[in-house]
Amino acid sequence: MNLLAIETSTRLLSVALWRDGDLLERSAERPNGGSELIIPWVGELLAEAGLTLARLDGIAFGAGPGGFTGLRLACGVTQGLAFGADLPLLAVGSLEALALTCGAERVYACLDARMNEIYSAAYEIRDGNLVAILAPAVTSPELAPLPPGGGWFGGGDGFAAYRPALDVRLGAAVSIVDADRLPTAAAVARLAAPRLARGEGGDAASAQPFYVRDKVALTTAERLARGGLR
Fold first, then answer.
1. Which CATH class is domain 95-178?
2. Which of 55, 62, 183, 211 lies 20 to 30 A from 70 at CA?
């Protein structure tokens, strides 16, 4: 199976090409912008693999939650590529991809959502599959959903942004934290490949980002009520 994946929900932009389990990838950190990198990376990976878009079996993208601009970028680019080549398109949760990069059995995935909020979810590996224990949510760090039991690995830049509040809220449930982990296109591809093989890919026109949050900005009163202008 040949599968292209794009993930741009955070400052880490990446593109990956899956070839029957082998992965080629391009990535770079771009806190602002970087959209000009995606299409050239796609071309480079296809050329390196000796493939064309027409020889792909599908395309996947990190659907979110994450930065609104990044989510629209991944969705828009993959829609265009999938529509032009008549390929199925598959949306993969960015928190799922983050959890997979952590390499732990139980992962509490947490991304900085800005505006004094986090995106979080919890996942377990069961029989080789990633299973959602807590669905993706957007909350303040002080109200982060609590995972059951203990032994959770905390991953994501939400821990870098709000570590003190999260330590108080999550307590001993999260025993190890790596705040540098971010979702990658390689993880998106690894999650998408078995789903695509099961025929879960859909029509490009129906794909859309998974925002979780429905507001991109707050009023001044709302920002002050949350403790500042972050």
1. alpha beta
2. 55
101 within 8 A of 155, measured Cβ to Cβ: yes
Distances (CA, A) of 192 to 59, 64, 74: 9, 14, 15
Provide the residue ranges of all domains of the chain, joining segments of one domain with +.
2-94+183-206, 95-178
Would 2-94+183-206 and 95-178 be classified into the same CATH topology?
A: yes
**CATH no. of 2-94+183-206:** 3.30.420.40
Q: How far apart are CA 206 and CA 191, in angstroms?
A: 20
| DSSP E strands, 20-128 | 22-29, 58-64, 89-93, 106-114, 117-126
When the pLDDT of each residue in the chain is averaged and rounded to a whole number, the result is: 93
The least confident of 78-87, 103-112, 126-135, 218-227 is 218-227
> Taking the complete model, does pTM exceed 0.85, yes or no?
yes
The long-range contacts involving 51-54, CB below 8 angstroms and separated by at least 24 positions, are 51/2, 51/17, 51/19, 53/4, 53/81, 53/84, 53/85, 53/87, 54/85
pLDDT at 224 over 60: no
